[in-house]
Amino acid sequence: MNSFIKRLxxxxxxxxxxxxxxxxxxxxxxxxxxKSELLTGGLASPDTEFFYSAEFLEDxxxxxxxxxxxxxxxxxxxxxxxxxxxYGIWLTSGIGLxxxxxxxxxxxxxxxxxxxxxxxxxxxxxxxxxENIAVSIxxxxxxxxxxxxxxxxxxxxxxxxxxxxxxxxxxxxxxLYYIIRILKRTPID
Length: 189
Prior knowledge:
Largest sheet: none
Shape: elongated
Number of strands: 0
């Protein structure tokens, strides 16, 4: 694992990004959602969909007013650059700290896999940012959007959700495993 990732895996970073994650969940996300709902009249947002087609994206964007498309792009700049970084660093540090807490056993192969698991949330961040760029290009160029952009946006969305859900699942399983190991070592009096 490179030194940048190793620096993310410590208690200070984990606590800081846990706080930022909660701040985003409780304040920033609801505020952004309200703004979006007002501008789009409740139309769906492509970045909340797991799987969709290029045709679905084009149909969805056609329902947005020019003002709503502009606001979508602005919100990606204002908000959706920070949000992926917050959840990505939070998950990376949490998974990394959990792995550090687990007494490593087994062969080199298992250790190599365990050392690579904290990288998975960063893939979610990269695909989220690529999705934001692609969908923003769609919003900005509609109705003359190149088919290539319409085609890659859904792929980035799906890869983002796979990496993000995989990260959450891996983090939860590792944490549960760590807690069980602690409970087994703790004598009951």
